[in-house]
Each structure stands twice: as C-alpha cells, then as structure tokens.
Amino acid sequence: MRRFGSPEALAWLGTNGVHANSVELKTLLVPPAEAAAEALTGRCAPTWSVRRMYLLDTVDLDLVRAGVEIRLRRRARGRYDLAVSARRSGIARERIIPRNVRVELDIVPGALWQDIEDRCEVGSAAAAEVIAGSAASQELLSATQRSWACCGGNEAVDDAQLRELRVHGPLVVHRVKVNAQRLGLRRADLELYRYPSGRELLELSTRCWPQDVLQTATAFEQLLDERDVVVAPGHRTKASVWQDEIGIGRAS
Questions:
Q1: pLDDT tens sequence across 216-230
Q2: Does residue 84 carry a pLDDT above 80?
Q3: Distance CA 56, CA 84 (A)
Q4: Closest-CA residue to 36 (of 165, 215, 223)
C-alpha cells in the first residue's frame, strides 16, 4: 500500500530535494501504545525512554499561528536544547535563511513540507529558571533564533510578542526504538506524545538521506504492512494539538 507517494513522485523528490539535510517519514498509529510497541519490536513490554518538551509561545499561541515553533527540550542527563523552526509547504529552496540551520523534508500520508530549524544547546540552570517562571523565556534565544522566530513563519512576528512568551507543557515523550534493519531501515522510532490534558498522539517515524527516500519509503511501508499496527486516518501535527490544548485550558 502506497501511503507516502508513488515511486515516480518519491524518485523526483529524491532528486529535487537534495538541498535538505534529511527526510523524515512519519505516520500516526491507532493506540494502545503498548500493543503497538510489542508488535513493532517483537518484545513483551519493551522499555520506553522518557523526555520532556516545552512549547514557548504567547498565551494565544501567536507564533504557532504564524507558522513558527519554539521548543525547549530536556534531553538525557539533564541537558537542554532550544529549537526555533518554521514550516514551508513544498520543497522550494529558501533564498534567505539563517546560516547553519537544518532543513528537513517531512513526509506524512497525503502531505509534504519543509521544517527549517535553528537549534542550539542551552544551559540547564537557565532552562530550569525559564520553566519555573523565574526568568524570561526570550532570554534563551540567540540573536539568530530571535530573528528567525520573527521572520521565518508565514506571517511576521513582532519582537514585542517574544517578550510575551510563556512556557506551555510539558509534553511528555515516551520513545521506543524499533529494529527494522532487515527491511532496510537504519532505525525507526515509536513515540507516544502525552499532553498536559492527557491527550495522546502515537507516531512511528524513520529518517533517511534525500537520495534514499524511495528505498526508505518502500521499507517503511513494508514495516507498517507486516506488523500488527493500524495507521490512523488523517494526520495531525503536534502544533495543531497544542492549539486544541490551549483552547481547552482557556475554556475550563
């Protein structure tokens, strides 16, 4: 079953998307997460790693609405990083983007976009102060990230809005690695995203070089077809669920 495009379309993408650093293919699965993890790994009760992610935005998510996400992530051993990413439809090269940004092509069933991300490490003490609310969120942004947050999206963001950033979250992320080398995948990840309200997204993903997208998509399709998992109808981005979360919080 072709969920990520025809062989011709994927071959075209592999040739015309070589400016990207990577391609991520991903799809949402129908819960329960435990059953999907066992089916994909072939192990009973596999071990999940856990990390936390925070969205930095205004009370009304003005940046998300403008097409920009600022994510603060707590990684292993108490390390943190901060990413400012902007989404672009299609695969056209950006003429003006910051230096050293990472460009990734995201492919989901029925859709394709570019994620242009400026990521950097941040100090654990500074991150903890922002999460606790004792320091301003905007202080974590580098000058380049601040500029990209203002001009990287589909709509301009005023610098004054960056002074209104607050911390939303945490989004708790449970991850289990899926070994699919037999099919030709370097690795695949099953991730369960749990929002503050308890709402969940279950996502399976894999990454590859742009020139390998046709072979990788074929192997990924085979993984989905061979294992006892159910692909969810349609696709929701994590940003769209955040918008629902904020609406629920303000209504309660």
A1: 999 999 999 999 899
A2: yes
A3: 10
A4: 223
- Return the structure tokens found at 221: 């399709």
Q: How far apart are the first and last CA of the chain?
A: 42
Q: Contact at 8 Å (CB) between 10 and 213?
A: yes
Q: Whole-prediction pTM value?
A: 0.92
Side-chain-facing half-sphere of 221: CA atoms under 13 Å: 16
Q: Which tokens hold the place of 47?
A: 């071990």
